[in-house]
């Protein structure tokens, strides 16, 4: 490819609507162009990167025994009604009507379609297991499309779905996919961490995410990990062992204490002169739900969370615990309405008839003689114990414990007791055990050896192709531009004649270019008549892994050779430069 013909325009400035470095660089270096919020054209350089990522994915999925197919992007609502997700998917599902007034949607994912595809084709246990995948566009009307390709509305995903007759067979395939994923990301030049995660809207029980660790906020996930034993989990799933020894408030009796305007955990801790973990914090949430099976709306419901004072609520865990679609902290007016008291003094005391669901975080379990709100303005109770709970407070008189708290850095690993650390991560892929979550409601069945029918046991496995490419940029760049891993760079090398008017320079540059092409190297010849400085800047911005510069030193029989990731510039013979690039490219295959 000759730079004079390459369909690219590099910009002098970063776009001003971009936060993430990958977003800024991909726009400025001419890889993507925005069409609408979260919707981009992938220009030729980007398309080459995406093709490479897709091909690596394809090769490894095929090698792992999966088969590629392609499924529709526009889907009928009926299928989604069958699985029950039409009601629960919320606004991310882009819905529309066709000319016959049929309800349709743009595919955010394909569990429903693949289940309907396999059903009736592979109906016998003899044909299973099978793993089918596709690489294609998905559309999600994300609430906050941002960070360019990292969170778009339209994006490219590889999605695979496996069908089994037993849990053991699913476990085996899950492991097989985990290994394939590790290979895929490694071949894309990315190191990933496989972490336990929440299964979210997709359902199922076991799931893991593959994270590219970064140290900026574009890593939308907090990953907690243990260096000693390797435990790692997304914050929406992470658990820790708590230090219970200091959770005795030290009161010798139960007492109601006037606490005028003492409301926050901080203030209470000072007022009573006790640690925060001796206060049982109450937080009121309002949960909203999907319509019921008959399509009738389900009213919002208040949920009172009781959690140790030094801990915070993890809202995804809470949402799962109450089976809600969405959850938000209650407004002050709602606190009055639902609990008939003022914020700052609330608790479950005397609230059994108030129709508020009460959930205790596991962190409350080990607490003794603690402080809680009296559920009356300007009063708290000291020296409370869980055994003091009565039927007046909570229906049944027994607290319901769940894990709904956020782990904190430094808490102990559940597996080995060592200190947990935290880092940010970009989720580039994930794997789920779905079980019969889709096959059951959709009545997708196989026949076993005795002629009996059962719903398929399923797994699903996604990789964000566009997000993976953007994550590579996020991970590998400097002040001058992108530093592509050779594996997924749009071109392997650029040859830059310093002065295109110098015949000898152009001639040698052409020769090097031809030799590289003949050796199978993907190379750009920067034949533009611009100043060398401009060409170097573009080369750095675009991020070609190797640059061969043909300038004045050719009189000594030398060219300049520079790897994008190294600062060093070598002066070597042209053939040696060709040889170096060729060898690096050959080592990829
Ligand atoms: P996230 O939690 O980041 O929204 P998800 O759990 O919704 O991701 P899946 O539905 O499992 O993701 O999709 C599989 C993969 O598709 C993700 O691991 C991610 O790499 C990619 N992906 C998901 N949403 C987007 C998006 N809005 N833009 C780009 N890639 C995405
Ligand atoms: Mg999502």
Word description of this protein:
- With 589 residues, the protein is α+β, with helices and mostly antiparallel strands.
- The chain has 13 helices and 33 strands.
- The strands form 9 sheets. Strands 3, 7, 8, 9, 10, 11, 12, 23 and 26 form a 9-stranded mixed beta sheet that branches. A 5-stranded mixed beta sheet has the order 17-15-16-18-21.
- Helix 1 (21-28) packs across helix 10 (465-475), helix 2 (44-63) packs across helix 10 (465-475) and helix 11 packs parallel to helix 13 (574-586).
- The longest helix has 21 residues, at 167-187.
- The chain starts with 20 loop residues before the first helix and ends with a helix.
- The mean pLDDT is 95.
- Bound molecules: adenosine-5'-triphosphate and magnesium ion.
Q: Structural class per helix/strand content?
A: alpha+beta
Mean pLDDT level: 95
Helix content: 10-25%
What is the count of DSSP helices, taking H or I runs of 4+ residues? 13
State the gist of this model.
The chain is of the alpha+beta class. Helices cover 24% and strands 28% of the residues.
Key phrases:
alpha+beta; nine-stranded mixed sheet; binds magnesium ion; binds adenosine-5'-triphosphate; 589 residues; 24% helix; five-stranded mixed sheet; globular; single chain
